[in-house]
Each structure stands twice: as structure tokens, then as C-alpha cells.
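Extended Data, panel c. Modelled sequence:
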Amino acid sequence: MNKVTTTTASLLLVAVLVAGGCERPPVDSEQLGYRGTGMVQITNPRLAATPVSIPEPIPAVSSAGPKAGDIYQNVQVLGDLSVAEFTRLMTAITEWVSPEQGCNYCHNPANLASDDIYTKVVSRRMLQMTQHVNASYQSHVGATGVTCYTCHRGENVPAMIWTEQPAPRAAAQFAGWRDGQNLAGQPGVAYASLPYDPFTRYLNDTETVRADVRVNATTALPAGTSDKDIKDAEATYALMMHMSDGLGVNCTYCHNSRAFASWEESTPQRVTAWHGLGMVADMNDVYLAPLASTLPENRRGPLGDAPKAYCATCHQGAAKPLNGAQMLVDYPSLSGR
């Protein structure tokens, strides 16, 4: 093989490797804003057309008759449902969360009222969280709302969750101090070499999450200890990468590329996302993080914390979870209203 042939073969190999990381055409694009602003949403029709399995709703039953709280013991959340409604919802939840294990995943078959199985305590708290989200965050979930299936999708534990991670050690200590970033291959931040855990910083505190995410300077020459630095910007960018990847969208799904900080020039989806950040922080702060003491060691993270939610937990790569499927309408007792 001569030198020219060898060079040609090498270039072809490089081209194949580079192309392997790109989307196979055709891809679709939709202009979302004025020409020249770069507000174009790119979608892959093959991925967008991927069907999502949605369980058929169980036929509705009568609300008449004795209440579940009057008939069964230790019903703390859904006691106002009729026995028929309660049984129907329990059957649905079993299909959504534990289709293989059945009722015994949460209940002691010898004493259904007992709380001695930790999954029952957790599921009760999850029911309260679901009702809270549907009642208090319509600004994010709208009338579509969420159910247990939105996150679980037939699995005991949702596929997309996060826990705090120990700082990885540099190989042979040659790479120096990573300072929580520069570790490619982290799926939570779309495999970018950015801070690999922006979630502990931004999605744990209901009061400050929205304020802390913003890093744009408000003056021409910012000064003072309250101004954000490059490290802050990297952490925010990591969270934005997660949001973009988790929803399967571009930055311009929410932002105008000529003025990222401007609310006036952003899309309505940015407002929805703003409410979503507060919602997720609320879920983690009030409902999920406190479960660490209830969960067994094998269900906690390496640092002992409980698994928590982020954007990908519900969305799982779709702009609307379950592609916008309306499940809550068939189970109004989960609406919290």
C-alpha cells in the first residue's frame, strides 16, 4: 500500500468515526423566532416518532358506598375514596410501579395495614408528592399533570434519578484537582466536561434555586462579593445542558440566542421551565431527600443520601413527559384538588 492510499484510508476512517457521533439525516428544523437569531429547533423524526407505551386506563368505578378510610386500617392519604375507587387506584399503581412483584412489593400480605415494609412508607410519601405537584404546580405541569407512571414507567425505581457523588480521583493523581468537573462521560450533564453535579447546588433548596441559577451580570462592570464568577457560570451551564438533554431540545427551546438573559425575548417555555426548577427543588427538599432515613442502604447513594429527581426523571428525553399523554384525567384522586 503506497503512501497516498494509506493517507486516504486514514482520512476515511476518521470521517466514519466523526460521522458516527452525528445524527443520521434527515433531521427536521423549525424556526421559532426571527430570522438571524438562531432560534431553530432541531429534531430527529426517527426519535420523535418512537412510541411510548401508555397503560390503558382501568374503567371508572362508582364513588358511592363506604369510604376506604372507614373500612381499611392505616389509610392516611386516600381514605376519602370509595372502596371501589381505592381498589381501582391501587391496582393501577401496582401496574405502574411493581407489575412483577404485585401488591406484595409494598404490602405485608399477612397484614396489609402494616408499615413494616419500607416501600409502603415511601409510596405513601410519593402519593402526597404527586398530589402536591398536581395541585401546586399547574404553572409547570398544566392540566396534564403527573402520575406515578410519569416517572416509574413500570419500574420499581425511575430510570432517571440522581444522588450526590464523591469527587472522583484523578488517574494516578496526574490530572490534579478536578474541583468537581472536567470529567467527560457524565450522562447527567449530557457528557460534557462541566461540573458533574450541579443538582446538589441548584435542585435541593426551594428558596434559592431560581435566583442562584442566574449568572448574567446586571451592570457593565460588576463589582462586589455578590457577583457570579466563571465557576458559577460553569455550574449553571451544566444544569442547562442537563435540561436540554433531558427534554431533547436545543437551548433556543427557551432562550433567544441573541439575548439569552432577556425574558422579553424568550419563548413561553422559559417561564414553564422556571416554574419547573422550583417544583423539582420543592420535591427534593420536602419529599425525596428526607426519605434517606427510611431507605435501606442499597437504595441510597454512595454518600448515603436518598435518590432525587431532576428534569430527566419525568421527561426522559421528551419535551413533554410521555409525549403529553393525558393520564391524570383518568385518576382525578391524584390531582390533589
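The chain has two domains: 30-55+125-334, 68-117. This feature is highlighted in the accompanying rendering.
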